[in-house]
Amino acid sequence: MRDHAIGYEDIAEAELVTRRGTFRAVAFRDPVDGNEHMALVRGEPGARDSALVRVHSECMTGDIFGATRCECGDQLGAALDAIVREGAGVLVYLRGHEGRGIGLVAKVRTHILQDEQGLDTVDSATALGLPVDVRDYGPAARVLRHLGIGPVRLMTNNPDKVGALEACGIEVAARVPLLVKASDDNVAYLTAKRDRLGHDLPQLDAFPGARLGEASGSA
Ligand SMILES: [Zn+2]
């Protein structure tokens, strides 16, 4: 557990009115990774026994441009919807997390290998000599502490993310699934997440294209 705190010169907050209503937008510059991130806060999540939280890794192609090859954009929207439904919660949007931390250019390079050689999201990274996941969740932990958030109910399908946040000192009281419907476009990606990265994606069981236990490529 790191003890870096976010300095007051590195944080600013204002109301942000969105299509989903009003949030508190907390922009901060992380003292360790130097990136500027944002936490969107609804209601008084710190006042609850556990706060509904999404820690979202940026994905420009999915979040901004609505790409359908991954489910990032849908998860972002679904997490915000869930926070609005509950009336309180936090979405931490982490920069520097493109392609699980390899960066935007490298991520698009993996797309070439996926499209032209049929490699999955894991093998396309390792084929380029890149790590499969180098995301640092420290900034999320620091801003949650800054916001006075205690235990969290974490919206994720990724058990490793629970462990990673706990390693940063955040108590995860529960994992809340955030399941996006499978489609012909995203089924290869979701299947690789399930079979190669251990994500819990039960919605794939009903999808004909999701070859159970038949992940492509080497281990
Ligand atoms: Zn994505």
TrEMBL record:
- Keyword line: GTP-binding, Hydrolase, Metal-binding, Nucleotide-binding, Riboflavin biosynthesis, Zinc
Gene3D superfamilies (UniProt xref): GTP cyclohydrolase II
Question: What does the UniProt cofactor note say?
Answer: Binds 1 zinc ion per subunit.
- Which pathway, per its entry? Cofactor biosynthesis; riboflavin biosynthesis; 5-amino-6-(D-ribitylamino)uracil from GTP: step 1/4
Which residues does the annotation say bind Zn(2+)? 59, 70, 72
GTP-binding among keywords: yes
What job does this protein perform? Catalyzes the conversion of GTP to 2,5-diamino-6-ribosylamino-4(3H)-pyrimidinone 5'-phosphate (DARP), formate and pyrophosphate.
Q: Which PANTHER family match?
A: 3,4-DIHYDROXY-2-BUTANONE 4-PHOSPHATE SYNTHASE, GTP CYCLOHYDROLASE II-RELATED
By sequence similarity, the record places it as follows: Belongs to the GTP cyclohydrolase II family.
**Which named protein is this?**
GTP cyclohydrolase-2
Give the organism, scientific name: Actinomadura rugatobispora
